[in-house]
């Protein structure tokens, strides 16, 4: 993915399943950013695994890229994207 084309292709992060958008994308660097505090317990309850499913959308031509974000307990870990 060519970072220099993110702006021209109107790149954005869309949540799947009509959920709340938790992440955005910096069009200059391609970095994902957290839009608001994410509380793992309220999002996933007591599930062993907590994953936010988002999509990176690019236009002209249309491309969809799945982005899965594993959420760990907010009290123990700062956000990290791989």
Automatic annotation (TrEMBL):
SUPFAM superfamilies cross-referenced by the UniProt entry: Cadherin-like (SSF49313)
Locations listed in the record: Membrane
Pfam families (UniProt xref): Cadherin_2
Cadherin domain segment(s): 25-81
Primary location class: membrane
Signal peptide span: none
InterPro entries attached to this UniProt entry: Cadherin-like_dom (IPR002126), Cadherin-like_sf (IPR015919), Cadherin_CS (IPR020894), Cadherin_N (IPR013164), Protocadherin/Cadherin-CA (IPR050174)
Membrane topology classification: Single-pass membrane protein
Span list, region Disordered: 1-24
Identification of the protein by name: Cadherin domain-containing protein
Gene that this polypeptide is encoded by: Nfu_g_1_024553
């Amino acid at each position: 993915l060519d970072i220099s084309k993110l702006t021209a292709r109107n790149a954005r992060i869309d949540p799947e399943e009509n959920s709340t958008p938790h992440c955005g994308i910096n069009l200059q660097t391609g970095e994902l950013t957290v839009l608001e505090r994410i509380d793992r317990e309220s999002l996933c309850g007591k599930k062993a695994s907590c994953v936010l499913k988002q999509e990176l959308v690019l236009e002209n031509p249309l491309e969809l890229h799945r982005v899965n974000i594993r959420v760990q307990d907010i009290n123990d870990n700062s956000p990290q994207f791989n």
